[in-house]
């Protein structure tokens, strides 16, 4: 069994326009710090993600030509359309970083105004800028004017429930030249807790002319359909739901086409995706041992919810060489009955996320 190949564009009725970018399906992979490496992005595109984003980078790190930051921005051609996400705290920093990142020739850039992590907030980045909409707008304008590729924005609905300013922020970034805006329907103070307030996405959609992507509490293909239907947003962003489960994009594609869910992946399909993920990490790092260590969190995620996975994880997590990990994975997955196995939804809420 092999990984799916992308279908020719002419056969796909779900194509969606996001500013100047036309995507194959109205569902995209969220930028997730520590997770959305090139291998996860490639797997997600193979299974149907319309756009993929890098992990969030530091605008100042880009400016200073930090080699680690630049490597994190690298990508494979099959990831396209690919956007590099970064955060900036001043217009000058935003513009300088945008110019340097554009040299890598991504399809676009994405400015983060939603990260709730304390380290970013103390640096006056991420969601902290929701408290200074004027500065936020100038940052977007500076980045958009500095490059010829589209610049999008990811934001939260406000700092807290006393300052729900998503509509104001969205209108500001629209005026500043943003190609589209993604709204995570929680406040900064909510982090990833509680219920996402999808109605806030709808309010933004009805208030701006640029495309709007909805984000928050999307676990299943049916969730994607409900969010699109409820808010009339242009696309849906999936984060935790894609960790170790790129199959969610295939499931969304099927649901939006025919109106019901397709079968869950079999253990063999999970093995195929896992092996390819490891192969692509080795290709990216050029160091098999380092790639194996980086793969560990993904290995845990791919096997979530499968019978006997606890023992498999204990064994596999102690291995340092790719061949040994592959042998362990094959032994585990091929010992299971090869029929569809749904992932427990509780596993999604347990997944660690940083941005």
Q: In brief, what are we looking at here?
A:
The chain is built from 15 helices and eleven strands.
Q: How are the elements arranged and paired?
A:
Layout (H helix, E strand, L loop, with lengths): L15 E3 L2 E3 L3 E3 L8 H10 L4 E2 L3 E2 H5 L3 H7 L8 E6 L3 H12 L5 E6 L4 H5 L10 H14 L4 E6 L9 H11 L4 E4 L13 H8 L6 E4 L5 H11 L3 E4 L8 H12 L8 H19 L2 H15 L6 H8 L5 H12 L12 H5 L5
Parallel strand pairs: 3-11, 4-6, 5-6, 6-7, 7-8, 8-9, 9-10, 10-11
Antiparallel strand pairs: 1-2
For this entry, give a set of tags.
globular, two-stranded antiparallel sheet, 355 residues, 11 strands
Care to describe what's here?
Helix 1 packs across helix 11, helix 7 crosses helix 8 and helix 13 runs antiparallel to helix 14. The longest helix is centred in the last third of the chain and has 19 residues. Strand 6, helix 4 and strand 7 form a beta-alpha-beta unit. The chain is 43% helix and 12% strand. About 1% of the residues have low confidence. The strands form two sheets. Strands 3, 4, 5, 6, 7, 8, 9, 10 and 11 form a nine-stranded parallel β-sheet that branches. A two-stranded antiparallel ribbon has the order 1-2. It starts with 15 loop residues before the first strand and ends in a 5-residue tail after the last helix. The chain has 355 residues and is of the alpha/beta class. The protein is built from 15 helices and eleven strands.
């Amino acid at each position: 069994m092999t990984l799916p190949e992308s279908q020719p564009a002419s056969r796909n009725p779900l194509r969606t326009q996001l500013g100047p970018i036309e995507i194959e399906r109205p569902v995209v992979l969220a930028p997730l710090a520590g997770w959305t490496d090139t291998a996860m992005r490639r797997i997600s595109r193979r299974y149907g993600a319309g756009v993929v984003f890098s992990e969030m980078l530091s605008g100042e790190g880009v400016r200073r030509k930090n080699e680690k930051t630049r490597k994190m921005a690298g990508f494979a051609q099959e990831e396209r359309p690919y956007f590099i996400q970064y955060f900036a705290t001043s217009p000058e920093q935003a513009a300088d970083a945008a110019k340097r990142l554009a040299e890598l020739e991504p399809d676009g850039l994405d400015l983060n105004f939603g990260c709730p992590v304390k380290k970013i907030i103390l640096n006056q980045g991420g969601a902290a800028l929701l408290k200074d909409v004027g500065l936020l707008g100038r940052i977007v304008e500076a980045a958009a004017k500095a490059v010829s590729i589209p610049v999008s924005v990811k934001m939260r609905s406000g700092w807290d429930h006393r300052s729900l300013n998503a509509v104001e922020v969205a209108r500001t970034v629209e005026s500043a030249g943003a190609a589209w805006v993604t709204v995570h329907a929680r406040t900064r103070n909510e982090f990833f807790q509680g219920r996402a307030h999808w109605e806030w996405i709808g309010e933004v959609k009805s208030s701006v002319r640029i495309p709007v992507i909805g984000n928050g509490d999307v676990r299943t293909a049916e969730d994607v359909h409900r969010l699109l239907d409820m808010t009339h947003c242009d696309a849906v962003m999936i984060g935790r739901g894609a960790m170790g489960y790129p199959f969610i994009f295939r499931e969304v594609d099927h649901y939006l086409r025919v109106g019901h869910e397709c079968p869950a992946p079999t253990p063999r399909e999970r093995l195929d995706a896992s092996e390819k993920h490891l192969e692509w990490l080795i290709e990216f790092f050029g160091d098999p041992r380092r790639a194996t260590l980086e793969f560990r969190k993904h290995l845990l995620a791919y096997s979530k919810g499968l019978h006997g996975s606890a023992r498999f994880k204990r064994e596999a997590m102690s291995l340092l060489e790719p061949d040994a990990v592959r042998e362990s994975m094959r032994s585990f997955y091929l010992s299971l009955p090869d029929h569809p196995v749904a992932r427990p939804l509780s596993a999604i809420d347990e997944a660690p996320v940083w941005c």
